[in-house]
Design a protein that fits this description.
The structure is a homodimer. By secondary structure, chain A is α/β, with parallel strands linked by helices. Chain A folds into 2 domains: 152 residues, Rossmann fold (3-Layer(aba) Sandwich); 97 residues, N-(1-d-carboxylethyl)-l-norvaline Dehydrogenase, domain 2 (Orthogonal Bundle), CATH 1.10.1040. The first copy, chain A, has an 8-stranded mixed sheet with strand order 3-2-1-4-5-6-7-8, with helices on both faces. The longest helix of chain A has 31 residues. The first copy, chain A, is elongated. Chain A starts with a strand and ends in a 5-residue tail after the last helix. The relative contact order of chain A is 0.08. The interface between A and B is large, with 91 and 91 residues.
Chain lengths: 260, 260
Amino acid sequence: MRITLIGSGNVATHLGAAFKNAWHQIVQVYSRDAQHAALLAYHIKAEPINSLNDINIETDLFIVAVKDDAIAGIAEQLARYDKLIVHTSGATSLAVIELFTTKAGVFYPLQTFSTNKEVNFRTVPLCIEGSNEAITKLLLNLAWTVSENVSRVDSEKRKILHLAAVFACNFPNYLYYAAGALLTEHGLEFNLLRPLIAETAAKVQEHLPQQVQTGPAIRNDINTMQAHLQLLEQHADLKQVYSLLSQLIIKMNNSTDAGA
Amino acid sequence: MRITLIGSGNVATHLGAAFKNAWHQIVQVYSRDAQHAALLAYHIKAEPINSLNDINIETDLFIVAVKDDAIAGIAEQLARYDKLIVHTSGATSLAVIELFTTKAGVFYPLQTFSTNKEVNFRTVPLCIEGSNEAITKLLLNLAWTVSENVSRVDSEKRKILHLAAVFACNFPNYLYYAAGALLTEHGLEFNLLRPLIAETAAKVQEHLPQQVQTGPAIRNDINTMQAHLQLLEQHADLKQVYSLLSQLIIKMNNSTDAGA
């Protein structure tokens, strides 16, 4: 397929590389920032542009991978070319593009992408939605060329997925930071926690989290929890986090058959 | 070394296997439950016992891997043999054993162990403490035979590590559960989140968490956070978690140079 990428951030970069590896032709890369456009375009052998007036209409698909609140404005400008326009946002409804065209879709990769960190794109869940069955099928087929993990997900469910991703990714990463801050304060290295963090995530690749919960809260080990709260006496924020999450783990234990 | 294992839970099981693989002799395995003792003893070619009266004194080291509140009672009974006694607990002071003997130490593996899930023990951080320099050195040397990640950690610092492990392991696992519960409620599969969870943990193996934080809170994306809180209207607990952790991510962003 001939694909035009709108955006040059982490999602655009990783998607662009995946499409190029699957032998699609990336026609152009647009970014407001000419340097960003040039850098990504160089890597994926596309033409860089930094004005939407320079769009080459010889393309099959516009992929709009920009900040959520910029999607509508871009879709409005691209609609005149009468090509398929998709966005890549978990939190944004398909309707935002359908305001301007009936040829609309969503191509949402459920993964956290960073600069300078490669991801095995074949394992990335791609959540697909189209304005009609033909578009959905076309996007599903395109998705299968780059990933083995493709689902049809409507806008309502996609919002839930996006919310769940905050719990499964953004919040755990903050807790890694909090753990590291405690260590640093006592002259200990974050490195000591890395194997534990890796193993915690590895365990739920095969099991459900409620089957592998460990720690003082799931054992209802009041003494340890009290000792921990005392250690957090000078950290009001972390004390609050500790109390809340421990209470919820105890509650989970009472509502499921989670082990110790 | 000739090692006697007191306990047959996850820590005892994984330690026992690691010692056996490193060609140490496991003399006996004690568990109150004869079947548990027999099972572990069979795997690591030791003699199972279910009474401390059956202790074979031809051993160099007692490793007490039992529940925290059972350590003192066991140490008291073992002290008569005048051998080195160590416990494996993050939350328990060395002094608990020193009440009964001057030959005391700690051998704390900073990892989460589960039944039926193998761990590469060579990467497990082992935190070592001894009552005197000779004991500490002996335990450090023993630790190096099974792991490449050995540190000297005193009782105060070990308590901090144990607390940090709750933040880095137990709480993230609960958040995986919470994310999965949201998905299940909407007919979506937990499997969709597994690559994201794996990548989130993989990122901090190379970077510090504050360098790779993503999500609406770090971007100060008020619209998305409000939409998420609205989706959580029927989930008072998760709404509280979402608000608290989002606020703390915003605070972290203001106090570090964390990126977006």
